[in-house]
Amino acid sequence: MVGFNMNGPARDRVMRLIQEKDRIENEIREQNAILETNNVGMNDPLVDAEGYPRNDIDVYKVRHARHRIICLQNDHKSLMKSIERGLAEVHQDLLGSNGEGPSVNATTSSNGHMNGTSSGDSIPHVVGEEQAFAVVGFVSDGSPADLAGLQEHDEILQFGSVNYQNFQDISQINDIVVHSVSQRVNVKVKRGANTVIMTVVPRPWQQPGLLGCHIQRKT
Fold it and tell me: Which residues constitute the domain of residue 201?
């Protein structure tokens, strides 16, 4: 689960945030299951053509699930920002306790767990020779991409089996997404001076598409 062994308040705070993030993601899945059971999404009408509540769905449960999903998505986005800030604090603590800083090879996965190994305490590492071949545009709230942790302006270093060396066009990414529905796809991105590795699970959701984000060739 964790690729660094340092104990301290900053690390403990990050781990608590990650646990809360996991809990929120589980509840979002539970609430989405309610919508799926009723064969509705976030925006489908709850009244019939005459303005009466639909009798083919549990209107009360659907309304409650939609409200909870919106609240949980907001909480999730806030937690992701807090986790990122917390990781930066841990990084600073490590640099402060080791003059040259650690040799790092750790990452953050889509479920918020950090993994990897290092010659010391490790957190998301500085990008070396890898080159980005694509850039993430907008990311829709509550989408598979959003839940995985993808952010606008992330520069993609690897998407599944595609990297800078074998990349030809965006259709390669589209093919991976289409053939990986409900399967885990490892994605490595450059964010600022760090790389972050996450796991994206393409799947149908409330809006068209399987990811809920725009990816374009890096120019």
Answer: 126-219
